[in-house]
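Running co-folding for NDP.
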Amino acid sequence: MSDSTSGGQVPSIGLNDGRAIPQLGFGVFQIPPEDTAAATTRALEIGYRHIDTAEMYRNERGVGEAIARSGLDRSEVFVTSKLNNGVHRPDDARRAFDDTLAALGSDYVDLFLIHWPLPGQYDGDFVSTWQTLIEFAEDGRARSIGVSNFQAHHIDRLLAETGTVPAVNQIEAHPYLTQDDLRRYDREHGISTEAWSPIAQGKVLDDPVIAKVAAASGKSPAQVVLRWHIQRGDIIFPKSVTPSRMQENFEIFDFALSDEDVAAITALNRNERTGPDPDTFNWLGPPHPRPA
Ligand code: NDP
């Protein structure tokens, strides 16, 4: 399902809970906390209306400051954050979620995710963590809830043990890791797929197939890859601190790839991750609370 937002050409994706998310957003992973307000301000000026942050990034406060200063109504910006790895136990998760809202300066977040399933931590129990996110949805402070880095077998457990279907599954996906099986699973269960590291942190941009499509379409390699995601129906939020690239990444709705080009880019799959494997990643990170 898709339609146009009033703010521009960025389509919206309808979620399984009746809400809608802009298909293109701005990601702030690895933007230093002290630079995040300025980068987010620039993104909002360009027209981005969806920001993807996380407790782990330590920069939720900068996102909140930029939105507050922008003059936009809070309802015009879709904000996602994620529960950090060290706070999965329900009481810790409740405290951490309070801190997320305080840092964002908002009484709600549009979408809240479990950042990683951590199958080797908490006795393998990510289900009670999911149950806690369900509380946040029920009390309205998380408008939508979902998961990140969950494999199909992790989601199977959530469905069997809680019956509540995540609105999204945010996973690493790009031309070298097309994730077609997991994306199909998501689709079959009404879950929208979000593709993180959509340009593989730049690693796919020198690929000859992508360069050829870019040359033929008069677009940059990054625009071609981002457009490929859009035509596959996934939600993306490329990160850049470079204003010209932030603008470039936003200008992907005035051209279309042919079915042949989409297929040629999909055929580049090598099942190659830039990030950790969710089945073995068990890193808890620094302890809560966050630094001031
Ligand atoms: P991206 O695939 O978005 O790539 C970001 C890198 O590419 C930066 O080094 C940036 O450089 C560069 N870049 C951006 N645009 C262009 C362009 N047009 N041309 C050339 N280079 C460009 O990687 P991320 O890992 O940041 O992923 C995007 C977002 O996904 C994150 O910010 C975060 O929100 C989310 N994410 C979620 C994860 C999860 O576990 N749920 C894990 C990782 C990411 P520069 O900034 O210097 O311009």
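Result summary
The first strand starts at residue 2 and ends at 4.
The chain has a mean pLDDT of 95.
Job closed.
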